[in-house]
Design brief:
The structure is a homodimer of 158-residue chains. Chain A is of the alpha+beta class and 158 residues long. Chain A folds into 2 domains: 87 residues, Orthogonal Bundle (Arc Repressor Mutant, subunit A), CATH 1.10.10; 53 residues, no CATH class. Helix content of chain A is 36%, strand content 21%. Chain A has 6 helices and 6 strands, in the order H-H-H-H-E-E-H-H-E-E-E-E. Chains A and B meet through helix 1, helix 2, helix 5, helix 6 and strand 3 of A and helix 1, helix 2, helix 5, helix 6 and strand 3 of B. Strand 3 of chain A pairs antiparallel with strand 6 of chain B, so a sheet runs across the interface. Chain A binds a DNA duplex (30 and 30 nucleotides) through helix 3, helix 4 and strand 2.
Chain lengths: 158, 158
DNA sequence: GGTACTGAGTAGGTTCGGCCAACCTAGCAC
DNA sequence: GTGCTAGGTTGGCCGAACCTACTCAGTACC
């Protein structure tokens, strides 16, 4: 197996949720694998074919995603085949939808393809199209560009 | 200068806004630099001190961020000092707030620090705290976990 | 029992990107 | 001139990614 996730966080970052999230999500290929999982891919060969990723790197990323609770291995068997394992999103994995949608929205606006969006966010149960928004506590919507970050309770320094 | 951004996209990904966004954002350090920019850092030494990043890599990432329109170089001069350049977020850079907030929310929920969130999203103008949400066209809120992705008009295949 | 086939990886060698320490440079102060 | 400082650049090292080829387990067919 190639490298386990060993990215060390500096003291100042150990409390930052963004840094901690990026420890896994920031690795090359990770979010593209998750994107494929959202599209319904579950098997090694499917990920490999869609992404053109080297098999050793894919095996490493899938292990990391399983270890971090984003994917889970599940046994399956097709008729006349031996038992194999596939990779499906866990709840924590499905909770990554906002990350993918946020990146999609940004890429769509600032690096347009000229073909329109390749993926659309929907409510899974009904298929109703949804969009990402920011809301104040009293339900008023705020434009993304007007959102900033301020120091929170867990910050050691800011 | 070390490597320009040369990540090649496979044909299947060239139309995907997620892949196109990740081409820049997916590089190591990029989003952490943007996070620091949101916190108000502007100078090489500030980024370097906060992130503990190697200077050559920082120079490369700052160049890439400027080339991609996320940061812009701006001249400034302090009393008794020579003119220098600092890096400030552009509109496209501020539009990355949803990406940071989405990662923050996920990290906060699934990789908690025990200290609470280190950064909080607010409306910049008023300081009012905001949260990220998904809305249907008729204004109903949908939980993040219930959001999926479907093929959009720009998809070559899905 | 032997051979072939398939999905899911593993292994070896090369290349690329990140890391670190050291060095460079422009302008200001003295 | 010498020194100081912010903002980088350069060179060497090393781990991670890449590519190709190979293995391994179980099934199918003969």
């Amino acid at each position: 197996m190639i490298g386990v996730v060993t990215r060390s966080l500096t003291a100042v970052d150990s409390r930052c949720s963004i840094a901690r999230g990026l420890e896994i999500l920031g690795q090359k290929w990770t979010l593209l694998i998750v994107r494929e999982a959202f599209k319904g891919r579950t098997r090694f060969a499917e990920f490999r074919e869609r992404l053109g990723i080297a098999p050793d790197v894919l095996a490493d990323r899938l292990n990391a995603l399983v270890e971090n609770g984003i994917l889970e291995r599940r046994a399956y068997r097709e008729a006349g085949e031996r038992e194999r394992e596939e990779y499906v999103l866990t709840d924590a994995g499905r909770d990554l939808a906002p990350v993918l949608v946020a990146i999609r929205d940004w890429g769509d606006e600032h690096r347009p393809t000229g073909f329109g969006p390749a993926a659309l966010p929907v409510e899974a149960a009904t298929g109703a199209s949804v969009r990402m928004a920011f809301l104040t506590d009293d339900g008023r919507e705020v434009q993304a560009r007007d959102v900033g970050l301020v120091r929170g309770p867990g910050a050691e320094r800011f």
